[in-house]
Specification:
The chain is an all-alpha fold. It has one domain (7-120). Helix content is 69%, strand content 0%. It has seven helices and no strands. Helix 1 (7-25) packs antiparallel against helix 3 (41-58) and helix 1 packs across helix 6 (105-118). The longest helix has 19 residues, at 7-25. The chain starts with 6 loop residues before the first helix and ends with a helix. The model has no long low-confidence stretch (mean pLDDT 94).
């Protein structure tokens, strides 16, 4: 019989991944694409940010402050304005770098950097959880 994953463990893993995706988002296009393996980088980052972001704000085990939750929700909402033409299937190095080089990413890189600062105290607690 398999063990059920506890809510706090799900939250911690979702927060860990959300923070990772933010860190990848702020990288330069070539670096982000290489780390992601040059496969649907733009779409995968956005999709994973949404999934893990929604998880960390809705989790009953969340220790994010009200302000942190609101900042995450605002960031997730802003992702809806990314042009759909850059969120298409990309399987080559060139196509992924091109998608991540779109000028719209500049504002998201800035927003992600600010969000990482807002989440700093929760990120420290999350690192402690995994140490």
């Amino acid at each position: 019989m398999s063990e059920a994953i506890e809510d706090d463990e799900v939250f911690e893993h979702s927060l860990y991944h959300f923070l990772q995706w933010l860190e990848i988002l702020i990288m330069q296009p070539k670096e982000a694409s290489e780390i992601w393996g040059n496969y649907n980088v733009a779409w995968e980052i956005v999709d994973d940010l949404k999934q893990d972001g929604n998880s960390i704000v809705s989790s009953i085990s969340s220790y994010l402050t009200t302000q942190q939750k609101q900042e995450v929700l605002n960031f997730l909402l802003s992702l809806e304005t990314i042009p759909q033409e850059i969120l298409v299937s990309a399987t080559t190095v060139e196509s992924n770098i091109a998608a991540m080089s779109h000028s719209c990413w500049n504002e998201y890189r800035e927003s992600a950097q600010k969000l990482l600062k807002v989440l700093d105290s929760s990120a420290a607690r999350n690192r402690e959880y995994f140490s």
